[in-house]
Write a structure and sequence with these properties.
alpha/beta; Molybdenum Cofactor Biosythetic Enzyme, Chain A; Alpha-Beta Plaits; Maf protein; six-stranded mixed sheet; five-stranded mixed sheet
Length: 429
């Protein structure tokens, strides 16, 4: 969320502290932090800091002291297991100078779960029953490691969760959320809507919508990844419905400014949007691919129900396949080359004719890292589009600096975007 939305929050804020050397080494993706960040936003709890710390008591203690000075709710994940490097609870107890107390009910629960699963209870599992004095048990129905709900001093609440994402998420939903709400946390909600754009740079879009970046509630923030640009609209309100009402007029204005470059919102993808348009127009699609090697077909068929409009495709990596299956002439290949405006058109028209579809979409290009020339450098891509009334082609120069996979990704997405824009034009006619 943007800083301007955060500034509207109450004085109370949460901080996420993820414990585990494996996180620092990059061996495990820190999905727990993402889940908790989104969950805090849904509850309307302000959240300004995240920390990842290894399995080291001195560094964990330092993280606790620093976080406790600036945040009122500390949420820990990891370090609750039975091994010597699981140090979260004992370090927390040391931070606040309290002893660890063994809980017989936790021992009984662990023993019962082990018996159900055919596992043997070992002595090191007793460690999981040791919690800081005064802490309440945050029950774990899925695993053996319980967490805690603890107020070690006035104005500070600590929640701990195991590092296993499925266990943590269930404990959060079943126990932590009701507790936090009962304590007055989450009296507001932060709701976000993300508009998605293709075919425009982040800087160009930002210039168009620049006045919106000064808004306070809702706020608008841009970001870009994987070739697309997004505008996130975030509102703070007493309910999700109220937040949606605040967002709606801003979204409408941004869509109008973005025009055809705005292809969807939230979980939309270019493939899903194109699929919906093909259904609406009751038309069908086939593809012919060279440098993308089936990537376009894979993206199209990732959408459930795509069989109703996508008939199939041809991966014509070799020129002989272009000739035999797509009716590209050897003369055109010799005269213009496989990577050319002419061949892109012939590939699109050929696959449309051979498969009997309304639309034919083709890609041919130089994905690299080798094969480029001065006239046809790495990153040069032609996209062909054959429809009921015309055959077109579009030239793109994606450059070589980001490598082969980047060129292929941009090629497939841009091909879908070309078809999307043409379908929208047909709908307006």
């Amino acid at each position: 969320m943007s800083e301007s939305v955060e500034s509207k929050s109450t004085d109370k804020s949460a901080e996420i502290i993820c414990v585990g050397t494996e996180l620092l080494l990059g061996d495990i993706l820190n999905s727990n932090a993402q889940f908790l960040a989104q969950a805090l936003a849904q509850l309307g709890i302000a959240h300004y800091y995240q920390t990842v710390v290894g399995d080291n008591p001195a560094r964990i203690k330092s993280a606790v002291n620093q976080a406790g000075d600036r945040s009122q709710l500390l949420i820990f994940t990891g370090g609750l297991g039975p091994t010597p490097d699981d140090l979260t609870h004992e370090t927390l107890a040391a931070c606040f100078n309290v002893p660890l107390i063994e809980h017989p009910e936790i021992l009984a629960d662990i023993t019962h779960k082990f018996a159900q699963r055919g596992r043997v209870f070992t002595e090191n599992n007793r460690k999981q029953a040791l919690l800081p004095e005064g802490a309440l048990v945050l029950t774990n129905e899925s695993g053996s490691a319980p967490g805690i709900i603890w107020q070690p001093r006035p104005g500070l609440t600590i929640l701990t969760f195991p590092g296993v994402p499925a266990e943590m998420q269930r404990m959060w939903r079943d126990v932590a959320v009701p507790y936090l709400q009962s304590q007055g946390w989450g009296q507001t909600t932060i709701y976000s809507r993300t508009l998605r754009f293709w075919g425009v740079s982040e800087s160009a879009l930002a210039e168009k919508v620049n006045p919106f970046f000064d808004r306070q509630n809702p706020t608008v923030a841009p970001y870009a990844n994987h070739g697309e640009v997004k505008l996130r609209i975030s509102a703070r309100a007493s309910s999700e419905a109220e937040a949606q009402q605040l967002i709606a007029p801003v979204e409408q204005q941004l869509r109008e400014l973005g025009g055809l470059d705005c292809y969807g919102a939230d979980n939309d993808s270019l493939a899903s949007v194109v699929g919906a348009l093909l259904k609406t127009t009751q038309t069908t699609l086939a593809v012919a691919e060279s440098c993308t090697g089936g990537g376009l077909g894979a993206i199209i068929t990732s959408v459930p129900g795509s069989s109703s409009y996508f008939l199939g495709g041809v991966i014509s990596y070799d020129n002989a396949i272009k000739v035999q299956l797509l009716d590209v002439s050897e003369h055109d290949l010799n005269e213009h080359g496989a990577v050319s405006d002419t061949v892109a058109k012939k590939m699109a028209a050929g696959v449309r004719s051979r498969l009997g579809t309304s639309w034919g979409l083709s890609i041919t290009g130089v994905a690299g890292p080798d094969g480029g020339t001065d006239s046809k450098p790495v990153g040069l891509v032609y996209i062909g589009l054959a429809g009921p009334t015309a055959v077109q082609s579009f030239e793109y120069r994606f450059g070589a600096s980001r490598g082969r996979d980047w060129i292929r990704l941009l090629s497939t997405a841009t091909a879908l975007d070309c078809l999307r824009r043409e379908l929208l034009i047909k709908l307006d006619q």
